Amino acid sequence: MDFELSEEQVVLREAVRDFLARRWDAAHMRRALDDPPALIPAELWKEMGSLGWIGIATAEDVGGSGSDVLTASVLAEESGRGLLPATLSSVIAAATAIDRGGDALRTSVLPALCAGDHRVVCAIEEPGGTWGPDAVTLEASAGADGWVLSGTKILVPDTEGADLCLVAARTPAALGFVTVPTDAPGVTVTPMRRLDAQSIAEVTFDGVVVPATALVGGPERAEKTLRATYDIWTVLGAADLLGVAETALEMTTAYAKERTQFGRPIGSFQAVSHRLADLLVDVEISRSLLYAACLALDEDQADASALVSAAKAFASDTAVRATEAAVHLHGGIGFTWDLDVHLYLRRARAGAASLGDPDFHRDRVARALGRDRTDQDERR
Amino acid sequence: MDFELSEEQVVLREAVRDFLARRWDAAHMRRALDDPPALIPAELWKEMGSLGWIGIATAEDVGGSGSDVLTASVLAEESGRGLLPATLSSVIAAATAIDRGGDALRTSVLPALCAGDHRVVCAIEEPGGTWGPDAVTLEASAGADGWVLSGTKILVPDTEGADLCLVAARTPAALGFVTVPTDAPGVTVTPMRRLDAQSIAEVTFDGVVVPATALVGGPERAEKTLRATYDIWTVLGAADLLGVAETALEMTTAYAKERTQFGRPIGSFQAVSHRLADLLVDVEISRSLLYAACLALDEDQADASALVSAAKAFASDTAVRATEAAVHLHGGIGFTWDLDVHLYLRRARAGAASLGDPDFHRDRVARALGRDRTDQDERR
Amino acid sequence: MDLHFSPEDEEFRARLHAWLEEHAGRLEDAAGVMKGAGAANIMDAIQMARDWQRTLWEAGYVGLSWPEKYGGQDASLTEQVIVTEELAAVSTPPLINTIGLTILGPTLIRHGTEQQRERFLPKILTAEELWCQGFSEPEAGSDLAALTTRAEIDGDDFVVNGQKVWTSLAPIADWCFLLVRSDPDAPKREGISYLLCDMKTPGLTVTPLRNAAGGIHFSEMFFRDVRIPRANLVGDLHGGWQIARTTLEHERSGLSSVLALEQNLARLRRTASNIALGDGRAIDDQAISRELAQLWIEVEGLRHLGYRTLSDQIAGRPPGATASVGKLFAAQLRQRITHLALKIEGPLAPVTKKSPHVVERGRWNAAYFDALGHSIGGGTSEIQRNTIAERVLGLPRSVQD
Amino acid sequence: MDLHFSPEDEEFRARLHAWLEEHAGRLEDAAGVMKGAGAANIMDAIQMARDWQRTLWEAGYVGLSWPEKYGGQDASLTEQVIVTEELAAVSTPPLINTIGLTILGPTLIRHGTEQQRERFLPKILTAEELWCQGFSEPEAGSDLAALTTRAEIDGDDFVVNGQKVWTSLAPIADWCFLLVRSDPDAPKREGISYLLCDMKTPGLTVTPLRNAAGGIHFSEMFFRDVRIPRANLVGDLHGGWQIARTTLEHERSGLSSVLALEQNLARLRRTASNIALGDGRAIDDQAISRELAQLWIEVEGLRHLGYRTLSDQIAGRPPGATASVGKLFAAQLRQRITHLALKIEGPLAPVTKKSPHVVERGRWNAAYFDALGHSIGGGTSEIQRNTIAERVLGLPRSVQD
Q1: Which of A350, B355, D343, D346 would you call most buried, defined as having the most Cβ atoms within 10 angstroms of its Cβ?
Q2: Reported pTM
């Protein structure tokens, strides 16, 4: 029994933190709030590829590092801490989809993807006011030369550098990802922008023709692959938010020790210190849930999806509370453009409402608990 | 424009507070937690009758004081403060039902009722997991000698001294109160007990025969009378809870000034003082909503029911928060039997879940807001 | 107890209502200007805003509580309330000289010399002179009395050195009222003076600050040997703290903020009815519908609290707990409305205003940042809880100094 | 990272499981006894509870972390966890001598003399001697170090005078461990000693206190010239504060409280599925179903926090923030579960257990009072927030003394 990061994972965390501190500046995000959106430069991307980060959770035979979701979460958490665009998380998730799908794409796409020479993007969400695979309505209908896709995806991250799009669709064979080259005829990309300067887009598909072999995982494994990928992406989103929350708490704690009002450091007032103590509790619970969810995914446990939802719901609430407290407890200065505090607030708010907001995930947990109960009743 | 109590109402409040301080001891409620339930003695009841309190909101021609719901709320609030059983509120409400019903009962029942010689009780709630007139299922079916009532009422307060019961029923003519003598054949009273030692009962009706004239207000005014009475009773419940909340806040504030820990009065710690400040805010908002609701009832405004729900929802939450804080901030001593703090907590908890809990009333407000919106849409 | 207005008051309201209908066009221009749209350049916009305030004043709807001799209306409290309500009902923009109207004006009426009143008050009303406030400093936020901007007397002048921050309107203001430390040796609340400074005085420079929402609302002001004539001292030398405190405490019934909250909430209900969330519309989500109901309850609570404050004022009773309570409650309510708004927007909450699919052009994200700023500016919620604990509940001070 | 137990551990679990099945009858008796039912009189009940603890000890499932020479098991941490989990899974009652087992035992193992260990430890394990704790005093609640019970040295004895309060089990305990002020002139944390007192010593009287829920759980203890031999001093003279503090800080992984919370929550889900509320069953109310989900999330969070604490202990790493965090979070969670329970009961929440229509014989009202008491006893949540702020976050002290 050992429920903490391994030594290797701790070393990786330090390495990532150092690397990002040297190679990525939060000020990029501030500038990007004006225009254009924040992107990871190609050379940085390539470097992360050579460090083995992009294929962290992808098998070694196709260029990945062969590690697990828990290790990937270390990268996501540090991306949150360092305000690196979350492209890394989304590509890590996309790579696992192709890896698990296990078809010809594995060998054709993954080596270049893991090396950082090539990017893949997942297009899942639609304009229906909710999230995730269950809400996918985009249909691939049978056509003369394969399948024909029509419909709209939104909130698609980082289309800029991507040449391949994994589109969640209801095909004649199964619900699953269909691969579509981003330059295929009928694909239109319209930029959107996130509150925290990250790049997102609307992608529309107007009679886009793909072969039936484009279904990732084939009819049998397509849906499972899509759902597993969404879970992995979601848990990386939770890790990102944990990094945001913990950093906000650290910044605010440091400020509370040093800022003096009424002749005392403000951290000696219980209105401040108790709020920070409560946030520490939330951060520690978030971390515990994150580990639980990653482990459940890595061990393919039956309750993995419920734990993923638990981790995401709790981390979202924690990040919003922590960053709002950070703005508030920094006082006027916390509300200025030049301090990084609002960048964390923006990322927390944006992340909390991406990949399912807390109520979405609580409802998912409620359904899972309901199924458990029904199962038990039936077994009696 | 004057939105505070009149001088007369302020004088009445002082008089009631003095009277209860002399004539009613909170210790009665503590003893009653063991057995038997707390009842207002007949002589005290009679005295309140002669002071004009029982018929406070009843017309003068039948022995009432001819005052209004707002003035009645002063009595209810002081009952909460003084931990007097809430019988007074329920009988005040019942008296307004008969007064507004305007039939023969007015002259036959009200003079003795207002004088305190006679008690009437309202039986509205049923075992269906919700509250109020809309949930009434008890049916009065047409029989040879009038109507025949069968069904179960629960949470009926203070049946002990009552000779007449106003039973909310769906009659062939209308939804409304039907008067039933408590000793009529087929009526069975089974005692229940409230958390705060107040007397309640289950009353079952098994083929109880009543004449069609027993419908209070007759077919035209029966439903309106029932609903108005429930609103009045509910707003008096809110006033009672406000009295409880304010008293708990005062007790705790006094304790926080005097109790010393770590060399300082505990009221100088923000963990204590800010919690008390927030409670003061809640108490003041509760009071404002109470006045708004009473005035709306007294002026028969269209939004009266929504404001009644607003007052009850907010006062319930406030009373629970205030009394839980009182227990907590008194520390160990607040959790002892001999201190009155838990008596207020019990009354708050019991009152908050009577006459509709906060969610019930929020849903009622939501429906009222929905109707407004629909009305507006239709007018366009 | 009654909430009715007298027939005279209702007549006053009818006249105002008619006037506003007549000026509806001007009104929309002004509203556009305050939102930074519709005017060719910023100086035009400011001029339009000044003109709008002047027009409103000429019609008799600015400075209602002020004495007639300084251009005010000597109006009754109920008339003030009616003006507030009617202006809010047609969503007029805030008046450009609000700081002068609500803070400096009442201060001068109470503590100014006759000469100061005659000199400054009329031009506040007409917006001929715009005012800004120099109270906060980088090291003196919640602990305002810790301010260190120094003023030394040199002949007939104060010579001021130091820095102020979080100043609204500084780049366009004509005058500034500020607090300075005039006696560094006195206990901290007893060595402060209250001065009026012409913004064109040499040595005074203004640097705009960008806020977290990206807008420019505040500035820093730097004073380097700025000379202010002694005639511009308000009240007693070293007596500025008491003056500033009474102004800050000069709480109003808060009814105008209620009206803004009510309009926001009504708009949010419409948003919730129109937007998809989960399995249906947002408003079909039971938790959201209940929270909307709860917010309506709280807005009603705040409104009726305001009526109680106003009743005390009308009756000349000492203000009870209600005034300080309203301010704290309103700040929280404002935040909760925007929190719920973001929840209602669901997946679209993170989308900014230039994107396809954005909800109502990003209004709720803007409102969210605004509300966050509000609980800091003008006294944090923590300071307000301290105030209630000490002054209303009579608890011992948690902040010793 | 893995949460699996070794094959040896799983074998240990299987043996325990079999043992528990075999003793299921005894178990139910004991559970009934702890709830005050099924035994003819209270003394019989206590004897049954003592017997149950002894039986469990004889089987090797009490005192797992204690050295074998004093009757303990010298077991591994994972074995301790397994025992906790399995006992919770079959809902065994808490052991009657829990205070002795969890507080005094570890203290004596660490700070006692060899003679004290040999004399006292075995009889704690077998429940031959029941222990109670005399720490709190009426004027020293959260500020425990302010205690005033005096101990003066007279020959070979301490002579103790004063009053203790909130003592569990005092009427039936054989021994008491207590803190006394042995040096009134020293700074308040440096003049305290830690003593062991036979409850039959002349001058010691016990008065039961009734709590807000109506039960008798606590007592007051009065000391009038109570003589305690010097041999019963634990640790150094005047060194009692440090000893008590390290014991209070000797946090466990908290996994046993998780199991209790989990069972409570599962039961509440069943209640919600069966009870009518509003238009359907309580669980059909979206807000209630979401809150049940949220509570499940938080119980899972607490459980996995416990695994992290345990992992640190197993690996011999210094305990991180997790231990103090778990205690605060668990107290809040316990209250929130009972709050939700009362909401789910709806109109029946105020009905007491002797009434028709009462839900599950009033279990949730009892749990509600229990949970309220929990956030006071053993250090209020405020004190725990102070501790986290100071010791984990390193913030300056808010409480000066």
Answers
A1: B355
A2: 0.94
